[in-house]
Structures are given as structure tokens and as C-alpha cells.
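Lecture notes, unit on binding sites. The following record was shown on slide 14. It pairs a sequence with 2,6-di-O-phosphono-beta-D-fructofuranose.
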Amino acid sequence: MEDDPPVTELAITLDRHLREGTGRGQSLAAGLPELIAALAGASKVLARQVRRAAFSGSLGYSGGTNVTGDSQKKLDIVANQTVLDAVAPTGVVAAVVSEELKVARILSDRPEARFVLCTDPLDGSSNTDIDGAVGTIFGIYPRAASGAVDEARDLQRKGSEQIAAGYVLYGPATVLVYTAGDGVFGFTLDEDRGEFVLTLDRVRCPARGHYYSANLGHLREWHRGIRKYLEYLTERDPATRRPYSLRYVGALVADLHRSLIEGGLYFYPADQGHANGKLRLLYECAPLGFVIEQAGGRASTGTQRILEVRAGSIHQRVPFVIGSAEDVELYESFMRREP
Ligand code: FDP
């Protein structure tokens, strides 16, 4: 049997993919290839900054907190600026909502500035000092109307209105995953060529997995149904591959990427310290919800499809469960059974 050719020789780069579309004759909306290419450019810079942080004095805390009260890492600030610097020159972004910006950054009200970008520039930043995986998340919305950006109309959106979304995982390799509503594609950064190369073509999330990711430190404070669900996951039943194995990186992007490829689920429900959950709707949950649904998976608050939740404010938090469709459905059914 002949060996598969090395992936890099297939040479489907992200740039080519963005130019030529997803292979079903669907081309991307005007301006979208430029914006995704700019985000990919930012991620190449960021991958290097993360790798070199110990040499450049960029590890540790900045001394400040972001608007949602999290202590900011120096790399959070670097990452936010890197993303802004990359997307502003494209001219296609009207406003940026970022975890690291108290209010949205308005970039342009010109007609060609067709999009609103919601981003967590450095997800999982508590991992930066221990050389753990981190990520970047992005969700892209079309402007709701032309003219001056209006917060309620343009920024407080429902995830189902996204035109594209994705994430970058900075792990042993840098991987960019995106959807523009016609499947999910993943590209691995070939450091030698400086190019993202297609390595996950129309990835599908397995219907069921055998891993779960959650911060069990909050277990006693969870909704009764979720505690029951955890009991179910940890019972022995070889027919359903239980007990599920626990895997928790502590960076949503990394835990979600595993669930996307291998199946299973991630959840961060409400607890005493996080009455509405910890994760942010616009720049964490909605983009990843769009990706997972496009791959056949499921994402919700536990009671409502995440893409149907309209943001009441740009930094709104929500309880979150995401992953394999059957696993997430079961989680939801345990919540229903135990009000
Ligand atoms: P972090 O605070 O390090 O940015 O985005 C929030 C997030 O990380 C997720 O990436 C991660 O899954 C979760 O919070 C970890 O929270 P806990 O430390 O409370 O488990």
C-alpha cells in the first residue's frame, strides 16, 4: 500500500481556499476572505509572540483587569492589539467587540465596512505562564444597517446571524478552524512556508464521544440535573463507553477542538461565583456554537440553543455546553428532568 502523500504537498492553502471557496461552488461574501486572511495573519504573529513570551518579558500579569473582572495577562493586551492592527487596514470591519475592550472599538462607518468582529484575542490566558495551550476566537456578523454603528442594533446580536466564525489553537502546532456556513475547515500552520495548509476538510464532530471537560471544582454548586449527569458519566457501562474520561485543559479552544475531532463535550454551567456561567456569549460561545453546529454537533445554555440567545450587552455571560450532539442532548435532558 502506498503511503499517503505529506499534507503539505497537497498545497491547499488557506489563501487558496478563501479565494476559491469551499468546493461546492459557494464563494465567500465580499470582504470576508480579506478579513479571515487578516485574522490568520494576526494568528501567525500571535503564535510567535506566545512562543517567545519568556524571552520578550511578556509572561505574567499586566496588573490590570478587563471589563469582565478577569486579571489581564500581558499577552492578553498584546493579542488584542495584534488583532486590531491586523483587521483595521482591511477596511471591511465597522466595529470590534473584544474581551479586552470595555466598549466596542469603532473602526469605520464607510459602506465597505460591512462586518462586526467579536473576538477573544487570547482565550485561556491563565495557561500562558505554564506553556499550556491558548487560542483566539472570532465571530463575524454582517452590519445590521449602514451608517453609524449602533450598539443595540449592530453589536447585541444572536449567534445565528453570524456569517463566519472560527478559532485558532496555539498548541504544539497552530491550527486555524473556520466556517462560513458551508462546513468546517481546519488549517495547520506550516512554519517553514509561513502558510496555513488544509488538514481538516469538512470536519464532522462524532455523534457521541467518551471524554468530558469541565471544572469539577464547582461541582457541588451546579444545577441538580448536571450533578446527576456527572454521576451518569462516571458510572461503569461498557456498552455506552462509560465512565467517560475527564480531559480539562482550561482553555476553551483546546477542549473544544478535542471534542470537535474526537467527540465528547465541554460544559461551564452556572455556579455560585458565576451566576450566569463564566463564558462570554458574543466572543466565546456564539462563534464556537456556529462551528460545532456546522460540524454536526450541538451547543446550548443547557436549556436554549446558543445561537438563538440574543446578547443583552456586549460582554454578557451564559451557561454553556458544547460538543457531540448526543452528549449535549443528554446533558440537556438531565437538566429538564431535575428542575
Ligand atoms: P481563561 O479564564 O483562562 O481565559 O475564557 C475563559 C476561560 O479561560 C476558558 O478558556 C476556560 O475553559 C475557562 O475560562 C477556565 O475557567 P476555570 O479556570 O474557572 O476552569
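Take-home: The pocket of 2,6-di-O-phosphono-beta-D-fructofuranose is lined by residues 70, 123-126, 215, 250-252, 278-279, 284 (CB under 6 Å).
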